[in-house]
């Protein structure tokens, strides 16, 4: 198979994924955007890397809360891609960008769960284009 042809197939597969994303009903954080297994991984990473500053219940102390009204007020109207970007660019504050994308997205799933958004069947995707489609809304 020629290189060019393989590229075409890869691009086709990506396109198929992106359109599946649009069709699967993930429009906001209320649509079951993450699953339980992912929250478990995110929780473990949180305890290890974030809890000292953001608190065991994400209630904040020195650092701002990552759950509750003021957190949701900050992020309403933005997307999960925006929050991922903020986390990758600035957190953990002592070593920004030091985690894998998968770890950041698992942490994002844990934060969604702590904010009482419903779980679904599939994991929150690590694909930026799909995260951009999932908006924060404080109320359904
Ligand atoms: C050394 C302390 C410290 C650690 C460790 C830390 N943070 Fe932070 N975090 C802060 C401070 C201070 C702010 C506020 C300043 C800012 O937004 O950059 C913040 C802000 C944030 C925000 C933005 C909150 C908002 O409403 O805008 C998020 C999200 C966040 N942190 C996530 C994390 C995650 C996830 C981890 C673990 C990987 C983590 N932080 C680890 C201190 C910390």
Describe the structure.
This protein has 140 residues and is mainly α. It has a single domain (26-131), classed as Cytochrome Bc1 Complex, Chain D, domain 2 (Orthogonal Bundle), CATH 1.10.760. The protein is 54% helix and 0% strand. It is built from 7 helices and no strands. It has helices spanning 3-23, 36-49, 51-54, 69-75, 80-90, 101-114, 128-131. Helix 2 (36-49) crosses helix 6 and helix 5 (80-90) crosses helix 6. The N and C termini lie far apart (49 Å). The site of heme C has 18 residues, from helix 3, helix 4 and helix 5.
Name the hetero compounds present.
Answer: heme C
Round the Cα radius of gyration to an integer and report it: 16 Å
Distance N to C terminus: 49 Å
Helix run count: 7
Second CATH tier, the architecture: Orthogonal Bundle
Largest sheet: none
**Percent range for β-strand residues:** under 5%
Percent of residues in helices comes to: 40-55%
As for the CATH topology, it is: Cytochrome Bc1 Complex, Chain D, domain 2
- The number of distinct β-strands equals 0
What is the average of the pLDDT values? 88
Low-confidence stretches: 15-22
According to CATH, the homologous superfamily is: Cytochrome c-like domain
Q: What CATH first level would be assigned? A: Mainly Alpha
Structural class, please?
mainly alpha
> How many domains make up the coordinates?
1
**What is the H-and-E element order?**
HHHHHHH
Bulk shape: globular
